[in-house]
Design a protein that fits this description.
The N and C termini lie far apart (56 Å). The longest helix is centred in the C-terminal third of the chain and has 14 residues. Helix 7 packs antiparallel against helix 8. 34% of the residues lie in helices and 25% in strands. Bound molecules: adenosine-5'-diphosphate and magnesium ion (MG).
Length: 406
């Protein structure tokens, strides 16, 4: 089987999916903008061939170059797990007549307004929302939506340029910060807890499922530098509290005509117990979420994803053994890390349950916490019992501190 995989180099976990593809016995044809010489020997060893393109975001150029590169080869799949390239991958499938999701199907997972309209048309609960293109339209939409509301880009990511507004004055302030955004969504603010619903699907049917809790909600995590965002996979998916969200998720997959592969959905659980749709991508979650899922069940979903999309089979035993919690740390101060406190004690208390610790060390430069959820490193800890996993995660949040620039 010959498989084209777009962006095998970046983001870093794409190298793991490339490995997965190689391990299930297919020939991988990678396409990215990194020079061939910059690829590690390991990554090269997973690929049958590699095409470097000058501008990976230039869809028409990528289409033309890949088309001439593939001439004379028979291709069975064109795959991509990185959101910005999913449309061009679908356009290639459409052009070459290769099985997989069409451009129209993928648009349902990319354009947040079309997404919500399709989900709503299936009778599922979505926030009331409206697409707007300028300040005047935003204010008119606000009259209809009411306050509090959320204003955010139609094609956003990582909570960038996303604001909660409680009044017309706050909307004015938000709009002034959003001048560079060409299309936005003004929507009803949904109060409640926020979760993920992640799957690997065959023909839109989940063959693997996961739920993770955001503590706190991503928008709050991205608006407050001082806190340490925690995300915990939920071991017990059978608990009543999650059933509304799981049913919603399955309905969304049907409404959007999901095909084969990963999905990553976000949903809200309101104080009244109602599950409300947030957003969905037909790709895996980023920021180590797949690592967390792997630690939850001691599986390798990089490889199982590949097996599913190539051979329609999932072979791992995905029994859920742990709640796997990741805690992202942000240093106090600017510049280079100067010291870390509390880590030694933390490891003495919980080290047996810690599976990864990647905190930056003194001398290393801080990362931009607004641009990467990864921030200044993470601690990943797991436990079979939810309460214990939760306690250990919050101990890492409060008792471990990184300082910078002292
Ligand atoms: N309608 C809403 N009600 C409440 N919170 C919202 C709403 N829309 C977005 N948010 C908050 O903003 C975050 C980012 O919005 P989201 O739609 O997930 O965009 P993205 O993750 O692509 O930036 C969400 O995770 C949530 O915390
Ligand atoms: Mg989101």
């Amino acid at each position: 089987m010959n498989v084209v995989f777009l962006a095998p180099t970046y983001p870093p976990e794409m190298q793991q999916y490339t490995r997965g593809l190689a391990e299930v016995g297919v020939n991988v044809f990678g396409v990215a903008d990194a020079p061939k010489q910059s690829l590690t020997p390991t990554l090269k060893s997973y690929m049958a061939d590699y095409l470097q393109v000058p501008r990976i975001m230039d869809e028409d150029d990528v289409m033309e170059r890949v088309t001439s590169w593939l001439r004379g080869r028979s291709i069975d799949r064109i795959l991509c797990n990185w959101e910005p390239l999913q449309i061009v991958a679908a356009r290639m499938r459409d052009r070459f007549g290769i099985p997989g999701m069409t451009e129209d199907q993928v648009i349902g997972f990319r354009d947040k307004q079309i997404m919500k309209e399709r989900v709503k048309a299936a009778g599922l609960r979505v926030p009331f929302s409206q697409r707007v293109r300028n300040g005047k339209e935003a204010k008119e939409a606000a009259e209809r939506v009411g306050f509090p509301l959320i204003v955010k880009p139609i094609a956003g990511a990582g909570s960038a340029d996303t604001y909660r507004c409680d009044s017309m004055q706050e909307l004015d302030v938000a709009l002034a910060k959003m001048r560079h955004v060409t299309e936005a969504s003004v929507e009803e603010f949904i109060d409640g807890e926020e979760f993920t619903f992640d799957t690997i699907c065959v023909g839109g049917q989940p063959i693997y499922m996961n739920v993770a809790a955001y503590l706190p909600k991503p928008l709050i995590a991205r608006s407050n530098e001082w806190l340490s965002p925690v995300i915990i996979t939920v071991r017990d998916l059978a608990q009543p509290k999650l059933q509304g969200g799981i049913a919603l998720g399955k309905g969304v997959l049907k409404a959007l005509q999901m095909g084969d592969g990963f999905t990553h959905m976000e949903w809200y659980l309101t104080p009244k117990g109602e599950a409300v749709f947030g957003e969905i991508g037909c790709r895996p979650g980023g920021a180590h979420l797949v690592d967390q899922m792997n630690y939850t069940s001691d599986v390798d979903l990089f490889r199982e994803w590949a097996r599913v999309v190539c051979w329609h089979s999932f072979k791992a035993d995905a029994t859920r053994k742990y709640n796997a919690a990741i805690v992202f740390k942000r240093a106090l101060g600017q510049g280079r890390i100067s010291r870390i406190t509390g880590l030694h004690d933390y490891m003495a208390r919980f080290g047996d349950w810690v599976v990864e610790e990647t905190l930056l060390r003194p001398g290393q430069h801080r990362r931009n916490w607004k641009q990467t959820l990864i921030s200044d490193g993470h601690i990943l800890v797991r436990h079979p019992d939810w309460g214990t996993a939760h306690k250990m995660a919050f101990a890492a949040a409060t008792d471990v501190t990184l300082y910078a620039g002292e």
